[in-house]
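Hi V.,

You were right to ask for the full record rather than a summary. Here it is.
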Amino acid sequence: MRKLSRVVRWLLTTTVAMMIVGGAAYAYVALTGTGEVTVVENLSWVGDNTFAVNVFPQESIVETLTIANASSVAMEVDIVTTIDPDPGAKGMTIDIPAKITIPAIGQQAFNVTITAGKSAEPITYTVTFEIAR
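Predicted structure:
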C-alpha cells in the first residue's frame, strides 16, 4: 500500500476538519421568507371625545368618556388632563382617575368631574385629555 505524502495528508486533514467545523456552524438553508408587521393603534374613543358644558362658581358637573380597546389583551392607560388657560389658584379643578384598564376587545368608561371654584373667572376653558399607554 502506498503512503500519502505529507502535503496530501495535511490537505485531507485540514479539509475534513473544516468540513466538520463548517458543518456545525452553517446549516443548509432550503427556503427563506419575509413578512411585514405594522403596529396599529388599538385604542379609540367611543362616541364623542368632546363636550361643552356650563358651570357656575362653586358648582361641579360630571361628564363620562369611554375608550374602546380593539386588542386581544387588556390595556392599562394613564389619563392626564390640562386646562387652558391655566386657572392657577382660581379654583377650576378636574378630577379624573389616574389610570384605567380597558378590557380586551372591550370598552371602559371613566368620569370626569369638573369643579369651578368660588373665584373661577367667567371665561371658556379648554380641557384636554391625554391617554398614554
